[in-house]
Structure formats: structure tokens, C-alpha cells
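May I ask for a protein sequence together with how it folds?
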Amino acid sequence: MKDHFKTLAKYTLFLWCSVFVSAQNNGFDKVPQSQFNLSPFDLQLPIPKNNSIVIIQGPEVQNFASKNFYFWPQDKSIRFFCSSDGQPTKGSHYPRTELREKNEWHFENKHTLKVRMAVLQQPGTGKIIIGQIHGHSKGTEALKIWWNNGEIQAGFKEEVNDKEERITLLKNVPLGQIFDYSIQQNNSDVLVTVNQQTASFHFGESWKTEPVYFKAGNYLQDNSLSPVTVGLTAMYDLKISE
């Protein structure tokens, strides 16, 4: 009988430890403030709420983690996960897990976004928008940084509602390879740099009255429901300045 209780106690301890380890492994780490300053951003998630999506407001972003947005301590990156069946924002066809700058500005003075990141998994279309200058109204996607099947591209609209013009800055980037990009705005001029490759854009008069803001993360360009595909990006550094 004593041996039976010893065996039962060992099994209970083993079961408790297994549950504890499993709970740890299934958890998602919050982004440490010592590694990233997320206070300038809200977080948009591909989760439905009130005919739109869940938005984590500025101060809460640093205290939030889920399967869509979490810190990966092994390489000290923020992971942005999005599946093609996620809920899009109102006015969009595609889902996103994306940081949205809280501060809004116009094409005057200077504003800069710098990101170090990698695309770890791409959706069925092979396309993810990884950075933006965006406005409020329809047709105000001023600038986009695209991942397009291993190419890094910059797309811009010279005037509000123009058709996007797109150029390739970097080719043959494998999944998992880390690269840097920056968007440097100076009045109506914007310089985009991807690693050592640069492109400059001049924005027209129609942008001067449009409030805009930076975005960065994983704006998945796939809304397939059958099959559902996913995109995963990793961000290793994020800086924003004015």
C-alpha cells in the first residue's frame, strides 16, 4: 500500500509538472520595455469587434500578448502573426496585425520610421505590407513597403487617390533573412532605404491637408478562406522620431 501511494505521489507530481511546463510553453511573452518602446503606437489585431477589429490602445500594448503579437525571447524579436481568415479593418479587404502610430502629422517638418525585421512565413499570395505612411480617407495610402515573394518594394501615390506606382529595391530575399528599412520624410519628400538601396519620392499638393501616420508589422495581402494561409514577421528593432 505504501508503494502504491509513493507511485501515486510521483505520478501526481509528474502530472502537475507536465501541466505547468505545458502552460508555460503555451503562453505568450509580453514585449519588454527595455527592448522596445511601443508607447507611440496602437496595435490593430485581426479579431472582430463591433463591425471592425480589436485595437489595443497605446499604454496597453506593452502589457499585451497573444498568438498574433508576442515577444520571442530566443532572438529578442516581436512576432506578428496573421492568417488569411482574420477580420479586416472597415474599408479594407485584408487582415492585419499592425502597429499604428498614434501621433498624426502632415507632409511638413521631418518624421522617420526605422525597422529591422525578417519575414518568416508568407501567405499564399506571397504578399505582405510591412510598413506604411497612411491617411484617414480612402485612397490615402501614401507609401507602402511591400514584401512580394522575396522582393522588397516601395509603392507610392504622388497625389491622393492616384494609382500606386511601385519599384523594387531588393530582390531574392529568403524567408528568415534580416533586413533594415527606413522611411525618412522631409516636408513633401520621402527617402526609402532598404539595406543600402534607396529610392526618393516627391508628394504632390493634395497631400498637404491630409493627416498621416506610420504603420509597421504584418498587413497580410491574402484573404483566402480555403485554404487558409498565414504570414509571420519578426521585428528586431523599431524606432520612430520627429
